[in-house]
Write a structure and sequence with these properties.
Length: about 425
């Protein structure tokens, strides 16, 4: 069996590694002329860390990423509202990692090239359409440098090509643009002093107005006694103007984001100084797409953001792509018919991923945080004076809904690896 994987991001590279582990040939295509360690930080849930560890990348994750110790919510004055441990401290057999997206991608790329060979990844190559006849998929490829076109055949085509997936567009040519919820995000990296435990994922404010999310992502920096802080500033934009393109590499301006956080100075973090200390700021709207009722058409299917783009709530974007990749390879390896294997993959993953998309839209934790800002607009002494025990526990329930409902199940589940 030969699988063509469109997209050399986290989902596509993990798909290639998983297929190779299962004895299936894979070729990865990416339209970028070269894959670089771009982007900022992400969180990998224990679900994804388990899968990458079983692919032999546990050492790389421990070398690069910070094992997240806790997640804590604060009001816009830095008053503590709620907190909960993460990773192993929550009972999982694997940690949660906060890591630079680009460094993770490069670790995956290095593993793909080492295991599958130097020709297993073709950059500068765009997917320009595809067709299938029930037995094979014929993909039309375009060399972006020369303009040369060619047709490549494969047994399966996997769309791992992100929010603007060419594969998804081929399956759903009339789908509208991504849906914007009115929140604009700015992201950056700033080196500074460690805050709180040094391994805290902190959330302050509410995205009904303004919210800041910040966490350390570099074990190298931690070993130097410093912290490379990944921050996300979310602001609800007035009016109903157009979102603009969701370009993950679009440059943002400090002058656009700083006024929303100009006086956000906490005892444990100076937010304006952190924003100003970033060498580069990225800006894009918070968007997703409506869940699909079908990912698989014959020998073509979708994974990751191509299948289920979601709001960045609960650390699910990259983690769900890793899970897709592992289940896809697992089902293809144990099926006599590739089309049946793809349907089995979709049956296991689609409803789960779609439910997370909808849960992220619901944002129940942010509703509670907004309640705090309404009841205590100038801050509070004790959160118990502001929220009832039931309201506080609702925050825990919100994260159980999107990310942490299955500690025992994950720890006990058999491996997706062929020898597991």
């Amino acid at each position: 069996m030969r699988v063509l994987v469109a997209g050399g991001g986290i989902g596509g590279l993990t798909t290639a590694l998983s297929l190779h582990e299962a004895g299936i040939e894979a070729l990865v295509l990416d339209s970028a002329a070269r894959l670089w360690p771009l982007g900022v930080g992400i969180n990998l849930l224990p679900h994804a860390v388990r899968e990458l560890t079983e692919l032999g990348l546990g050492g790389a994750l421990a070398e690069l990423g910070v094992p997240t110790g806790e997640m804590v919510h604060f009001d816009r004055y830095g008053g503590r509202i709620w907190g909960e441990p993460r990773g192993r401290a929550l009972g999982y057999d694997w940690p949660q990692y906060s890591i630079h997206r680009g460094e993770l991608q490069m670790a995956l790329l290095e593993a793909v090239l080492a295991r599958l060979g130097k020709r297993s990844v073709r950059t500068g190559t765009a997917l320009d359409g595809f067709e299938q006849d029930g037995a094979r998929v014929r993909a039309r490829l375009l060399d972006r440098a020369s303009g040369t076109a060619e047709t490549v055949t494969a047994d399966v085509l996997v769309g791992a090509d992100g929010l603007y997936s060419a594969v998804r567009r081929g399956l759903y040519p009339h789908e509208p643009a991504p849906l914007w919820n009115g929140i604009r995000m700015w992201r950056g990296l700033t080196e500074g002093e460690p805050f709180l435990t040094g391994r805290t994922l902190a959330v302050a404010g509410s995205n009904t107005a303004a919210k800041i999310v910040v966490y350390p992502i570099s074990m190298r920096a931690e070993r130097r006694g410093r912290a490379l802080l990944n921050w996300v500033a979310e602001v609800k934009v007035a009016g109903d103007g157009a979102a603009g393109a969701a370009d993950w590499n679009r440059t943002g301006r400090l002058g656009d984001v700083l006024p929303h956080f100009a006086d956000w100075r906490f005892g444990w973090l100076d937010v304006p100084a952190m924003l100003a200390g970033a060498a580069e700021i990225l800006e894009y709207p918070m968007v997703d797409r409506d869940p699909l009722d079908r990912w698989t058409f014959g020998r073509v299917t979708l994974v990751g953001d191509a299948a289920h783009p979601m709001y960045p709530i609960g650390s699910n974007g990259g983690s769900q792509a890793v899970l897709d990749a592992r289940v896809l390879a697992h089902e293809l390896a144990r099926s006599d018919d590739p089309a049946d294997g793809l349907l089995a993959y979709e049956k296991e993953r689609r409803e789960t991923a779609n439910a997370i998309v909808l849960a992220c839209r619901d944002m129940p934790a942010d509703r509670i945080l907004h309640t705090v800002s309404e009841r205590a607009p100038l801050g509070f002494e004790q959160i118990e004076d502001v929220l009832s025990p039931a309201e506080l526990s609702a925050i825990t329930g919100a994260y159980r809904q999107t990310s942490f409902s299955d500690v025992a199940a994950l720890n006990a589940r058999p491996s997706y690896s062929p020898a597991g």
